[in-house]
Each structure stands twice: as C-alpha cells, then as structure tokens.
Design goal:
The complex is a heterodimer of chains A (114) and B (111).
Chain A lengths: L4 E3 L2 E4 L5 E6 L6 E7 L6 E7 L2 E5 L6 E5 L5 E5 L8 E8 L9 E2 L3 E5 L1
Parallel strand pairs in A: 2-11
Antiparallel strand pairs in A: 1-3, 3-8, 4-5, 4-9, 5-6, 7-8, 9-10, 9-11
Chain B lengths: L2 E3 L4 E5 L4 E3 L2 E3 L4 E8 L6 E5 L10 E2 L10 E3 L8 E9 L8 E2 L3 E6 L1
Parallel strand pairs in B: 2-11
Antiparallel strand pairs in B: 1-4, 3-8, 5-6, 5-9, 7-8, 9-10, 9-11
C-alpha cells in the first residue's frame, strides 16, 4: 500500500507567478484535502475534493483552485502568487467511509515566493 | 468561530516524568477532537481521537466540555515521544473533513 505522495518537494517562484502542486492519494482513498502550513503555524484547511468535485472550502481566495482526477490524484493551483503564499502545502487523503478526522498526509511541497 | 489554542510552543521534560500537552478549543456546537503527531523526518499522522477513548503509545486525552479542553497526557515520558504535537478540531455538523489545527507544541524528552 503506497502512501500519499506529493511533488515537487521544494520550489521557488516569484511574486505574480502561478504554481501547480500535485498529489497522489493513498491507494483506495477517494477524498483529498489540501492544507497550507505557514512557518510556526498549524496546517490551515484550503479545500476538499470528493469524486472530482470540491465539497468544502476554507477561508482562501479564489486564486487558490484545485482539481481531482478520476484516479483520485489531485492538483492545487495558485495564481498571482504573493509573498505570504510561502508555506508548506500538505495534501491529505482518506476513504469516504473511513473514521472521521483520520487523514493521511503527504510530506508536503515547500513553496517559497520571492 | 472554530479555534484551537495550544499555549506552549515547547515542553521539555526528562525521561520518566509525566507529560501534559495543553489544548483548549472554541466551538459553539459539539466538536470532535484529535491529536496529530509529527516525529522527526516523518509525516503528520493521527495519534488519537476523543471518540475512541483509547490509549495510544501510553497517551490519553479526555474531552472536557466544561473547560473546553482536550489535554494530552502520558504518565511516564519516553525519549521516542519527542515530536511535534498538534491538537485539531472538527465540527460535528461539518459534512466535509475540515480540521482546524492549533499551532502545535514541540515535546522534547531528555535522557
């Protein structure tokens, strides 16, 4: 059983650019969520996808968008990057029938915006 | 509004000493509370949930609705308990799995 994998692990962008982060869910998991973790903070919920539809969103602007594909892999897209977008972005997956609150996290993609 | 507060950034204890990691929450309804842990060079993972009322790796946590707290406790700390601990809350009426995390407490257990 493979765990949640994310790519790239690190990347550097400049303000105003766009970025795409990728996530492969753990085998058998059909629900994926994305979290932003700024330095010294806990993870903050961005949104969740279930069966290719966004079904929950946190307090993030529309320039944060996502996709989930039929194989349950997912992308997080951020447009018009700002300096404050610098953070670790975590992907987490679970089954639709799994125990509530049990998320399986990837190791994250660390984004630096200059 | 949902909020989780972990007042200690760092908790340093000696091996064999009792440990209590504090967590307070703010939520108008009935929450579900969790503790997540991140060991060095590992990914964030679930340690325990209040609904299960179980002991994991010697850790327990009791939900106190009167004090809106969910403190994590262990009677005798081990060096391998050194890690970052996050308390998290999920609203029961939330259809999706949005977790609200605290800022975390780093536990350092010295020999």
């Amino acid at each position: 059983e493979t765990g949640v994998t994310q790519s790239p692990t690190h990347l550097i962008k400049t303000r105003g650019q766009q970025v795409t982060l990728r996530c492969s869910s753990q085998s058998g998991h059909n629900t994926v969520s994305w979290y932003q973790q700024a330095l010294g903070q806990g993870p903050q919920f961005i949104f969740q996808y279930y069966r290719e539809e966004e079904n929950g969103r946190g307090n993030f602007p529309p320039r944060f968008s996502g996709l989930q594909f039929p194989n349950y892999s997912s992308e997080l897209n951020v447009n018009a990057l700002e300096l404050d977008d610098s953070a670790l972005y975590l992907c987490a997956s679970r089954t639709g029938q799994g125990p509530t609150g049990e998320l399986f996290f990837g190791e994250g993609s660390r984004l630096t915006v200059l | 509004a949902q909020r989780v507060t972990q007042p200690e950034k760092l908790l340093s204890v000696f091996k064999g000493a009792p440990v209590e990691l504090k967590c307070n929450y703010s939520y108008s309804g009935s929450p579900e509370l969790f503790w997540y842990v991140q060991y060095s060079r590992q990914r964030l993972q679930l340690l325990l949930r209040h609904i299960s009322r179980e002991s994991i790796k010697g850790f327990t946590a009791d939900l106190n609705k009167g004090e809106t707290s969910f403190h994590l406790k262990k009677p005798f700390a081990q060096e391998e308990d050194s890690a970052m601990y996050y308390c998290a809350l999920k609203g029961l009426n939330t259809g999706f799995q949005k977790l609200v995390f605290g800022t975390g407490t780093r536990l350092l257990v010295s020999p």
